[in-house]
Amino acid sequence: MIKNWKSYALAGGALLFLASLGWLITHRGPLAPITVVTASVEQGDLRASVSGIGTVEARLSYAIGPTQAGRLLKVMVDQGDLVQAGQVLAEIDPVDLEQRIRATESAAQRAQQSVLIATAQEKEAQSRYRLARANASRYKALVAKNFVSNEMAESRQNEAQIAEAAMEAARSGVVAARKDAEKAGAERAGLIKQRDNLKLVSTTDGLVVSRDAEPGTTVVAGQAVFHLVDPGSLWVRARVDQAQARGVAKAQSAQIVLRSSQNESLAGQVTRIEMQSDSVTEERVINVSFVHPPKRLYLGELAEVTIQQENAKDVLNVPSAAVKKQDSQTGVWQIAEGKSKFVPVQVGIQTLDGKTQLKNGLKKGDKVIVYSSAQLREGMKVREQQSSD
Fold it and tell me: Which residues form the Multidrug resistance protein MdtA-like barrel-sandwich hybrid domain (predicted)?
């Protein structure tokens, strides 16, 4: 009897153990259903927007520097100064340029005198040629009447040819003198232009944002002494996730929050979407300008940009976390008879508070899986857990 009782006890213990093991395997082990959190499809208004982080930059910036090497003699402006187009910002030491200009002025005056002298000589040569030609014609007529000899007529003809050659030489002298005068004038104009280039002049109305050289510094051609920007062209060069930037377009309104004024939101507008995206960070660069720029902006300051997109009225929506990709299809996971089922859907706008518009595939009140303790596949056993929402 005691042996039978022990046998029953062992059999009962074994059954209890197997039952416990089976329960563990099916409820907590590899055969246990995957725990999921669900949410219901809702209907309401959505306001789409995307955000990004960027820095304050200038669309129009200018580097002002010399066109020739030299030593800075004067610097008239500093960072933060507003300048006007044509304003002299700095001067470079001319060294002996003024003396060279005066020398070319003297050379130009001498060249002009040479032109006058050559012109007078040409007129004299023309007069002598006309006289010699007239004498040659007269003696030719007298030879025909036998009043003078052929030798005398030939002599007058030779004198006319000599006078003509002298006239041509004088004419060439005038051309050469004029070229010399033009050369002297061009040299003088070139030196004056070179002297004018020693003054660094602002090409536009703008704000000086950097002063990169001081008086006494030797600078070379092309080296920037100042950097200017157009204050009206300041914008935020923001980076937005490519996945969210699909609906961003020019002229959309935006809100800008500067790092230095985190409690103040400034109105902005999308001005340009750069064609070159960042393939490494998978971001698109959006330039957002200020509708009313603040009085003082600092280049390089961090700013957060929120771009407002279209609104959707009375539309179906689900938490964005519920939208998944399965075999290149967009859809959501649902529970069908205790198992996971993928339902393809067409999505619309997304909001910053984590909601996504559904255009088709589901109806209001349907439940979708928002979170799962493991990656889902079609037909997997799942067990719903109360959503924290």
Answer: 64-229
Return the CA Rg of the chain.
Answer: 47
**Local confidence pLDDT in tens for the 389 residues of the chain:** 555 565 656 665 556 655 554 544 444 545 567 888 888 889 988 888 889 999 999 999 999 999 888 899 999 999 989 999 999 999 988 888 778 878 888 888 888 888 888 888 888 888 888 888 888 888 788 877 777 778 887 888 888 888 888 888 888 888 888 888 888 888 888 878 888 888 899 999 999 999 999 999 999 998 999 999 999 899 999 999 988 887 889 999 999 999 999 899 999 999 999 999 988 999 999 999 999 988 888 999 999 999 988 788 889 999 988 898 888 888 998 888 888 889 999 888 888 788 888 988 888 888 888 888 888 888 888 888 754 44
Q: What is the model's pTM?
A: 0.61
Asked if 376 contacts 34 with a C-beta cutoff of 8 angstroms, the reply is yes
Helix (H) and strand (E) counts in the chain:
3, 22
Q: Which residues have a Cβ under 8 Å from the Cβ of 77 and sit 6 or more positions away?
A: 83, 87, 89, 90, 208, 211, 226
For residue 316, give both structure tokens. Answer: 């179906």
CA–CA separation, 266 and 56 (whole Å): 13
Tell me the two tokens of residue 105.
């002025």
What's the CA gap between 272 and 237, in Å, rounded? 9
CB distance 259 to 301 below 8 Å:
yes
Single-letter code of the amino acid located at 62: Y
**How deeply is 373 buried, as exposed, middle or buried, from its count of CB atoms within 10 A (0-12, 13-18, 19+)?**
middle
SS3 content of the chain, % helix, strand, coil (to 5): 35, 35, 30
Cα(372)–Cα(349) distance, rounded to whole angstroms? 24
